[in-house]
Fold these 2 entries.
Entry 1:
Amino acid sequence: MTEATGIVGEFLTLKEGTDADLLAMQCGDFYEFFAEDAEIVADELDLKVSQKSSHGSSYPMAGVPVDDLTPYVSALVERGYRVAIADQHETENGHAREITRVVTPGTHLETGDESAQYLAAVVREASRDSGDTYGIAATDVTTGQFQVTQLDDADAGEALTELYTFGPAEILPGPELRNDDEFLDRLRERTDAALTLHDSASFEPGRASHTVREQFGSETVDSVGIGDQNVAVRAAGAVLSYVEDTGVGTLAAVTRLQAYGERDHVDLDATTQRNLELTETMQGDSSGSLFDTIDHTVTAAGGRLLQQWLQRPRRNRAELQRRQSCVAALSEAAMARERIRETLSDAYDLERLAARATSGSADARDLRAVQETLALLGQVADAVTETERLAESPLADALDGADREAADSLAAELDSALVADPPGTVRQGGLFKRGHDDDLDEIIDEHEAALEWLETLPDREKERTGITHLSVDRNKTDGYYIQVGKSETDAVPEKYQHIKTLKNSKRYTTPELDEKERDVLRLEERRHDMEYEHFQRLRARVAEHATLLQDVGRTLAELDAFASLAVHAVENDWARPAVVDGNELSIEAGRHPVVEQTTEFVPNDLYMDDDRQFLIVTGPNMSGKSTYMRQAALITLLAQVGSFVPARSATVGLVDGIFTRVGALDELAQGRSTFMVEMQELSNILHSATEESLVILDEVGRGTATFDGISIAWAATEYIVNSIQSKTLFATHYHELTALGEELPTVENVHVAVDGEPRSAGSDGDVTFLRTVRDGPTDRSYGVHVADLAGVPEPVVDRSQAVLDRLRDDKAIEIRGSEQNDGGTTQAVFDLDSGQFRDGAAQSGGAAAGSTAEPVATDGDPEHAPGEAAAEGPKGDERAASLDSETEAVLSELTELDVNETPPVELMAKVQEWQAELDDE
Ligand code: ADP
Ligand code: MG
C-alpha cells in the first residue's frame, strides 16, 4: 500500500525533526506510534502492537483513540518520556501533520498530582574575582508560578540546594553546565528531574532579556531587581522559551515574576532538609515527615503553600509576626475557623484552573469550578469580618490581597452564563443558560421546541392510531424513526413508510418526521457551534483574569495554611514563640513535633545565648540526644515559618541558616564511604555557617577510629567556637569532649540523665532512660555503665573499665581558646587518663601543675613536648643496632610514603608487600 509508505515515512521524518523521546501522530481517529516508539509504548502501557507494511518492510504500530490520548501521554510522561504530538489538519490537497505540542515532565499540564511541578533552568557564569554566579529560574506551568534567583559568588552547593528545594520534574542546564560531569552527577544525586538540553541560543543574554521583558514587561523586570542580574535573566529567558516551544500554551498565565534573594530565606541545605525529614523521612516516605504531621490543609493549593513555607523559612521578623498573629487569631476563634475550613473544603484549585483556561484546555465544568471558588472568597471574608477576633487580626489585610469586587463580578458573569451542572464536553451544547445571548436563545428555543415536538410525538401518534407499543427514537443509521411492536404493525397509518424490520418490531418514518429531523439536525449543529463559540469567548474572558484567579487562589491557600497551623497548635498544645533578633534560643518544656505524636514524650528545656553558644550533649545510646537536638532545630524552623511550636514557651533568636550533620546510615546505600560523606558535610558546615546560624552536629567523627574521631571533633568544636561562633549543639559519645565545656567560656555541657535505678519497661527487661536533659557532663563511662545496667556479667564489665582506662592512658590534649577572648591560644591541657586538667597557658599554673605529673606540650613550645618525646620510643641509633636490613628498608619506605597521596588500594598492596618482606626473615 503506497498510503502506508506515506504514513510511516511521514512519521519517521517528523520524528527526526524533534528531540522528543516518542512521537504520537494523528491518523484520523487515532494517534499512532510506529517502529521503535510503538514497541516502547506497547511495553509501557500494555497496548497491542500490530504490523504496518511499508516499502516491503513491516513496522510495528500501536495506537490510541484520539479522545483517549491525554491519559496515555500522562502515563508516559510520568515514566519520564518526552512525548511529541503531531496533529492532523485538512489542507487543499488532503491531510497535513505537524508537531503542535511536546509534553515533557516539566510542562505536563494534566498531572494527576496535587503537589507543585517545577520546570527549572540553571546557568553559571564565572565572575571576575572569585567564585561563580548561578542563576536559577523555576516555573510551575500548572499554576503559573515563576521564581528566579541569582546566587552570587556561590559554589555549586548553593545552586544544587536551591534546585533540591524546588524538586523540579525537569531541569534545563545552561550550555556551560552541560559538560560539567561533576555538577550533573551531583544534580542527579539530589533530584529525579529529567535533564533536557534546550536550545543554547535561548540562554544568550540578549535573547533571554528580550524574552523576559516581553513576558513580564520591562518595568516589572526592573522593579523586582532582576533587570541587572544577567545570570538570573538568562535562566528565566530559557525557561520561558522552553514553555513556548513545547506548546503547552500557559505562558499567558505566567504573569508574576517573583525574584527572591539569599537574604529572604533561612539557608537549609539538602542534607539538612533530609535530616530534619521536612517533607519525607530518611527512608523516603512522605508519611512521618514534618509536613505530613502538621498538614491539616483542606485544599491542594493550601497544602502546596504550607510545604513551601516549611522548605523556605523566613528571616523577616515582621512577616513572621504577621503570620503568627493570623495563626493566633484562628487558633482562638475556633467556631469561625471551622466555618472557614468547611467553606474552603469546597474550593477548587484556582491557580491550576487559571493555567487550564489560558492553555484552552478548560471545559465548562472547570469554569463552573472557577465560579464556585471565586464565590467562596466572599464567604470566607464574611466569616472574618463577622468574627471580632479575626477582624482585628492581619487576616483581614490578607484577604484584601485579592480583589473581591472583581472576583464577585467574574463569578456573577460565569454564573449567569453557564448552566448549573454543565456536561463534560464543550462541543455538544447544553452549556449555557437562557439570557446569555439573544441569538443563541433563539436557536436554543427553536431547537428545544423541535425536540419537544419529537418527545411528544409518541403520545400524539398513540392517541391518533390507537397503537399502544409505539416509541420514537434515533440512531446513527436510521436517524429518527417511529418503532411499532410487531403485533400492532397492521394498524399503522398509510403515511408511515417502512424502513426496517427487527425481531419484535418494525421501524417507520413519515414525511413530517423527516422534515423535523432535518430541522433538529440543522438546529443542533447550529446550536453546538454557537455554544462552542460562546464558550471559547467565555474561557478567554476567564484567561484574561488569570492574575485575579491566582490572587484569589493564593489568598485562599494562605488562609488554609494559617488555619492548618492553628488546628495543629490547638490540638497539640503548641505555644506562640517570641521571635527576636540576637542569639537567644530558649525553650521551656520543648518536644519533638513528630515524635510527640507517637510517644509519651518527656519534655525538655534548652537554653542558649551569647554566653552559652555551644552545647555539648552527652548521654548513653538511645537516651534521646539526637531527638533533643533535632527538636531544637525544628522548633527554630517552625518559628521561622510563622508557626506555633511544641513547647510550653519559647524565645527564638532568628537564624540565617540551619545546618545539620545527623546520622549516616542512609549514605552507605549510595556507595560513598560513610566517613567521606560525614567529612564532606562537616566541611560544608564549617564553610557555610555564620555566627547567626544554628548548627547541629550529631556524633561527628564516629565514622573513623576513636582517636581520629576525637581529634576531628575536638578541632571542629574549637573552630566553631572561636572562628564561626554559631549557635551549636554537638552530641557526642566522646566523653573527652566535655573537657571543652568545662574550659571554654561559651561552651557548656548538658547531658541526658540516666536514671540510677533503671526503670524496666515491661517484662522484656528493656532498660529505659529518664530522658531529662540537665546541665553538666554525663558520667564518663556511660558505655560501660549501660553494659552494667543491661546485665552484662560482672567480670566483663570490670575488665571493660580496665581496658578503657588503659586506652586512655597517657593521653593529653590542649584546649585552644580564641586569641581575642582569652589572650592566649592554649586554654588548658586535659589529661585523658586522669580526666583532670594539667597545666595550660591561660591557667593559673601553680596549683594545677602541682597536682599532675609533668607539664605537657603547648602551642608555644612544641619541640620539647615530653609526651611526644616519650611516644617516639627508642632513639634512631639504638633502633639501627637492633634492626636487620629488611626491616630498615620497610621502615624507610614507610617513612617516605605520602599517605594522603596514595590511593587506598595501593596502600593495601604496599602493606601486604611489607608484611611479606618481614615474614621472610
Ligand atoms: P540517642 O541519639 O541518644 O541515641 P535518640 O534521640 O535516637 O537517642 O532517641 C532514642 C529513642 O528515644 C527514640 O526512639 C526516640 O523517639 C526516643 N526519645 C528520645 N527523646 C525522647 C523523649 N524526650 N521522650 C520520649 N521519647 C524520646
Ligand atoms: Mg543519636
Note: Residues 298 and 341 are 7 Å apart (CA to CA).
Entry 2:
Amino acid sequence: MQVIESIEEMQTVAMQLRFGGHLIGLVPTMGNLHDGHISLIKQAKEKSDKVIVTIFVNPKQFGPSEDFAEYPRTWKEDLKKCEDNGVDIIFHPSAEAMFPKDFSTYLNEETVSEVMCGISRPSHFKGVTTVCLKLFNLVRPDFSFFGQKDAQQCAVIKKIVRDLNIPTEIKIGETIREPDGLALSSRNQYLTKLQREDALSISKALTKAKDLVDSGIKSTDRIIAEIIHMLSQKRRIRIIYVQVVDRETMQAAKTVLQNQTIACVAVWVDDVRLIDNIVF
Ligand code: AMP
C-alpha cells in the first residue's frame, strides 16, 4: 500500500494507473475509519482494480463553531485498517496543500444543498462539493463511493456530477449500523453512555416510520409526526429537522414512493450533532 501526501504525486500516479488500463475506485473519507467506511472500501474493491482512499479532515466543510479541532484523527489505526482491507493507495494531503492561503474557487450547488443540513450548516455543502471536485480532478476515478448515511451529501454529489459532466460514476453504499441500530459515525464517540441511550431513539423512530409505511400509511405528515413524537420523549434530544423527502431532489414529499422517498433526521444529543435516515 502506498501513502501519498503530495497533490502532484497523486495526480501523476492516478494518471499512470489510468493509462495502465486500471479501473480506479475512490473512497473519500475524513479518516477515523469504522465499518461504514470499510464497507465502502469493500464495494470499491469489488468494482475496481485500484482502490484509493482519501483521508482528509476537510476544514472547508466545518462551520466556525463546529468540531473541526476536536474531530477524531486516528492515523495509525486508519493505516492498518486500509492495509488489512487491501487498499492500494491512501491519499493524505495537508490542509495547506489542498487549500493554500490564496485559494478562492468554490463549487456551489444551489438546489439540493439548500434544504435540511444546508440550512443548519450554511457553508457545509460548499466545502464538501469543492473538496470532492478537487479529489475527482486529482484521482479521475471511474467509480466514487459514498454512504447513504449522509443522504443529502449523496444527492448533492450526484447532482454536481450530473450538472458538470464529471466523468465518474457515483456508487452509494447502505448505512452500516451498530447491532442495536445506531448508525456508525465518527461523532458517536463524543457520546456519553446516557447520551448514547437517547441517541438510539433516532434509529428506533426511523424504524417505526418504516413500519408505518409497510403497514400501508403513505401520508408523510403522519410519518413526520410519529418520528417527532418518539424523539421528543428523550430529555437530551433537540430536533434540528425531521423531513420526508425525495432521495434525489431532497424536496419534501407529500406521499411515500417505494425506494424513492426517505425520512431524514438531524438532532442535537446535548452538544453532539447526529444525522440519520431511512429509505422507504
Ligand atoms: P466521513 O469520514 O464521515 O466523511 O465519511 C466518509 C464516507 O463514509 C461518506 O461517504 C459517508 O457517507 C460514509 N459513511 C459514514 N458513516 C457511514 C455508515 N454508518 N454507513 C455507511 N457509510 C458511512
Note: Residues 29-30, 36-37, 39-40, 146-147, 149-150, 173, 175-176, 183-186 surround adenosine monophosphate (CB under 6 Å).
